[in-house]
Structure formats: structure tokens, C-alpha cells
């Protein structure tokens, strides 16, 4: 009997563990990934010439990173692997992608989206200047290129990644101008019962903050980042501290980030239904705990459907693999027992993820405090005033209409960094709750395509 065509998009923790289960049960999946090497962003591998040890590169998580990498390396002969391949469209059970500027079409019976997460940012006046990076970008520069984003780096935003990247920069010997967190200590206390679901992770976070403070790095909570100063290049960060005092932080680079958010655009192209999540204030695909979406042949695992971290992503990937297997055969008693155990562990992980959102809340009020001259969309350099104009004069009642009139979300990022901010501004102008601003629809191509991809060859089709 011929195996069903199962395609996994993403070779991070979720995708790798999903492939592992499928291979163990006699299925040869296709694994597609944009990166040249497996591991995802959290366990991103260093370039081939680099020889840094796992412990230096991944810190306390080095054993997990090593295990994930070794698992994938052992699977390579049992999967069809497409590295450096970007999927830009999905239609009629066919993926349209390009690899090394060559078109690729891959048909599937079942599609498993393990697309991971991307940075969630919030505009700060002056953030369009050279020297402003997302937290993820700052981390990649350090881990993948062994360089800092500046000589003196200020970190601002909120979430665990804020402290993790600052700590990694400290360990690498970089000069840190300070860590300025928009969330307060009280919100963390309220979330403590859920954070204690993973006491080791909580302890690691506290250790990082302690290390920063022992190194005399200024660490402030309850902060409002007001402006990134400079004339084309960053020269400083202006913040308002919890006590109302304003401070100018001299720096030549700013790392900015407010948690991460699921990369959901391929789920949108696949026809999955979405719902507004009030806790994260994001539109997320409707996915149950076993990875089923509203589309019968499309599944989702890991941070690509909800941010729960790498450990939960590994469990989620395994769970989805069993869910897909159930579509093709009956599971035996041992397999069902394993599935139930994974589900119980995943539910505990979910409580911890909910705790992180409560401890480090999305500071939507900062969007309201932005001046009209602040740039909302960096790709197209659209200001808050221009978005408000599209609402007042063009009757743009939701993000897709506003996009047509203001061009917010039309740039290279395709709304990944600005659509949620645009929606908030629209809702505020109408005095409505945030979800009324709508969800920006994804349209192919969801990623830029080299112009020569479809001009010279018709492409290769894979069954």
C-alpha cells in the first residue's frame, strides 16, 4: 500500500519531532524549511566553519538543542528534505515554493504546518532609524554571525526573550546600555501559579535577571519607551521610568520586542479559520490540542499556532504526527497510550504559556500614546497620522480596507510587523474593541519571490 503524501513545513522542534514519529511508523514525509540547516530559530545551527560548543551557543538549553539536531541528522535518509525552500502559495493540495531561485511544486495529501514564530513588535517613535533591530534579529546576529548589533545596545520591550537576548549579549562580552521592560512586577506575581508549572524555566529566567543586575546592567520594569533618538542612525533611547522620571539612554543600537507571535500566513492560505484570542490580542488559527484545524487535511503544531515555547513545540509535533496517523490507520493500544501521555504533558505546558502572557502583557496602551508622526509601517514609511486619515476620510473600518488606502501591510513584511498595530489604531478611532479592526488577509506570494523564478523554467513538480 502506498504511503500518503505527508508534507511538513518547518524543521524546528515541532517539525523534527513530527517527522520522527512518522518515520518510526513507516511513513516517509517531505520536510520543507527556509533555513539552510535544521533546528528552527530557537536551536538555530551555527554556520559550517564555526566551531563554538553547544554549551556556549545554547547555554542551559544545549542538551535539548543537541538532541533535536541529532534526531534530525538521523532522519535525513528517511525523509525528503528541502532546505532553503520558501513556500509562497498553497492551492488545491499543492505547495508552490522556490529553492535556490528555482520553482518547486509539491503535492500533498496531508499538510502539517510547523511554521514557528516571528517577532512581535510595537512602534516606538524613531524606530525606523538604522540601528533598531527586533530581539530576534539581534539574537540571530549573535548566534549565527557571532557579532553584536552595536557597541552599546539598549534592550526594550517585554517577554522572556527580552531578558534571554540581553543575557546572551552579556555572556558574549557586549556592552549593554540597559534593559527596559514595559511590564511590571505585579503582573508576574499574578501569574506565578501558572509559571510554577515549569519551575526550572522560571528559575533560569530569574538567574538571567540576577546575572544582568550583578553585572551592573540597569534593569527597569514598568517602563514606557518614548523615543529612539538619532539623525538616521540610533544615538539613544528615551524612556519614562515607573516613577515618572524620564531618562536618556546613550546607545548606538536598540533591540526591540514584545514577545513573539505565530507565523500564520500559510495557515491562512490553506483556508484555515481564525479566531481572536483576547489574552494575546492576536488572531490565531482554530487548532485543537491535537493539531487539527478547520480544514480536514491541514494540521498545525508548535509556535505556529500558539506560543508555548520549544518544549511544548516538541510535544505538539509528536501529537500531530499521531493525529495524522489516525487518519491513515487504526492506532494500537500502545500508540494510544503514548498519545494520551503526550496530551497530558502538553496541557501542563499550555498553562505555563498562559502564565507568560499574563506575566508579560501586550502593552496596547503604548499604541494609543504614539504621536501622529510616529512611523507605524517601516516597509512603506507610513505614519500613524496617515492610518488615521484612511479611517476618517476613506471610511476604512478594518485593516484590509485601510491597507488599500494607506499601504500599511503592503511592504516586504506583508503586515507581519504592522497589521496588528494598524488594526488597533482603526478600532480606537471607532471607539471599538481591538478585534473589530479585523485581520489582514494573507495573499500569495506571502514571501518575496526572486524575479527569475517563473520567467525561465516551468518548475519541477513532485507527487
Question: Can you tell me about this structure?
Answer:
By secondary structure, this protein is α/β, with parallel strands linked by helices. It is 35% helix and 22% strand. It contains 15 helices and 23 strands. The protein has helices at 13-24, 54-58, 62-75, 135-145, 160-171, 185-190, 192-195, 199-214, 265-269, 310-328, 333-359, 365-369, 384-392, 399-406, 419-429; strands spanning 6-9, 30-32, 80-82, 85-91, 94-99, 102-107, 110-113, 117-119, 132-134, 152-158, 175-181, 219-220, 224-230, 234-240, 246-250, 253-258, 260-262, 274-277, 282-285, 298-300, 375-377, 382-383, 460-462. It is globular, with a radius of gyration of 22 Å.
Low-pLDDT stretches: none
Helix content: 25-40%
Q: Can you tell me the CATH architecture of the largest domain?
A: 3-Layer(bba) Sandwich
Total number of distinct structural domains = 3
The main pleated sheet reads as:
5 strands, parallel
How does the overall form come out from the CA principal axes?
globular
Number of extended strands: 23
Beta-strand share of residues: 15-25%
Q: Which structural class do the helices and strands define?
A: alpha/beta
What is the averaged pLDDT score? 92
GO molecular function: glycine dehydrogenase (cyanide-forming) activity
Protein name: Hydrogen cyanide synthase subunit HcnB
Pfam families: Pyr_redox_2 (PF07992)
Domain FAD/NAD(P)-binding: 6-306
Amino acid at each position: 500500500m502506498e504511503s500518503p503524501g505527508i508534507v511538513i513545513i518547518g524543521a524546528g522542534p515541532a517539525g523534527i519531532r513530527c517527522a520522527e514519529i512518522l518515520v518510526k511508523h513507516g511513513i516517509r514525509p517531505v520536510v520543507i524549511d527556509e533555513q539552510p540547516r535544521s533546528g528552527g530559530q530557537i536551536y538555530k545551527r551555527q554556520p559550517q566553519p564555526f566551531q563554538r560548543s553547544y554549551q556556549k551557543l545554547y547555554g542551559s538549553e544545549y542538551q535539548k538543542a543537541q538532541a533535536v539536531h541529532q534526531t534530525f541528522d538521523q532522519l535525513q535518509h528517511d525523509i525528503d528534505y528541502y532546505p532553503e525552500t520558501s513556500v509562497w502559495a498553497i492551492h488545491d493540495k499543492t505547495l508552490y515554493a522556490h529553492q535556490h531561485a528555482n520553482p518547486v511544486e509539491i503535492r500533498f495529501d496531508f499538510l502539517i504546518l510547523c511554521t514557528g514564530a516571528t517577532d512581535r513588535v510595537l512602534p516606538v517613535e524613531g524606530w525606523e532609524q538604522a540601528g533598531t533591530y527586533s530581539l530576534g534579529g539581534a539574537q540571530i546576529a549573535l548566534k549565527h554571525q557571532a557579532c553584536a548589533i552595536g557597541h552599546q545596545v539598549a534592550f526594550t520591550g517585554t517577554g522572556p526573550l527580552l531578558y534571554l537576548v540581553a543575557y546572551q549579549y552579556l555572556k558574549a562580552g557586549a556592552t549593554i546600555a540597559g534593559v527596559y521592560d514595559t511590564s511590571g512586577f505585579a503582573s508576574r506575581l499574578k501569574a506565578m501559579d501558572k509559571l510554577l508549572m515549569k519551575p526550572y524555566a522560571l528559575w533560569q529566567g530569574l538567574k538571567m535577571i540576577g546575572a544582568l543586575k550583578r553585572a551592573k546592567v540597569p534593569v527597569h520594569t514598568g517602563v514606557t519607551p518614548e523615543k529612539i533618538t538619532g539623525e538616521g542612525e540610533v544615538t539613544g533611547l528615551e524612556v519614562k521610568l515607573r516613577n515618572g522620571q524620564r531618562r536618556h539612554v546613550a546607545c548606538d543600537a536598540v533591540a526591540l520586542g514584545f514577545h513573539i507571535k505565530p507565523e500564520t500566513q500559510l495557515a491562512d492560505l490553506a483556508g484555515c479559520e481564525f479566531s481572536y484570542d483576547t489574552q494575546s490580542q492576536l488572531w490565531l488559527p482554530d487548532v485543537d490540542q491535537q493539531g487539527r484545524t478547520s480544514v480536514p487535511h491541514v494540521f498545525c503544531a508548535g509556535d505556529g499556532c500558539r506560543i508555548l515555547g520549544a518544549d511544548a513545540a516538541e510535544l505538539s509535533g509528536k501529537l500531530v504526527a499521531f493525529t495524522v496517523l489516525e487518519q491513515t490507520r487504526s492506532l494500537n493500544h500502545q500508540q494510544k497510550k503514548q498519545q494520551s501521555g503526550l496530551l497530558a504533558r502538553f496541557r501542563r505546558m499550555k498553562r505555563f504559556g498562559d502564565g507568560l502572557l499574563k506575566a508579560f502583557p501586550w502593552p496596547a496602551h503604548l499604541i494609543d500614546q504614539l504621536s501622529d508622526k510616529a512611523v507605524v509601517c517601516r516597509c512603506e514609511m507610513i505614519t500613524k497620522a496617515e492610518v488615521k486619515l484612511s479611517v476618517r476620510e476613506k471610511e476604512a473600518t478594518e485593516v484590509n480596507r485601510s491597507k488599500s488606502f494607506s499601504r500599511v501591510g503592503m511592504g516586504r513584511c506583508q503586515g507581519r510587523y504592522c497589521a496588528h498595530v494598524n488594526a488597533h489604531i482603526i478600532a480606537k478611532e471607532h471607539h471599538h474593541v481591538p478585534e473589530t479592526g479585523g485581520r489582514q488577509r494573507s495573499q500569495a506570494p506571502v514571501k518575496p519571490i526572486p524575479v527569475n523564478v517563473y520567467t525561465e523554467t516551468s518548475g519541477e513538480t513532485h507527487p
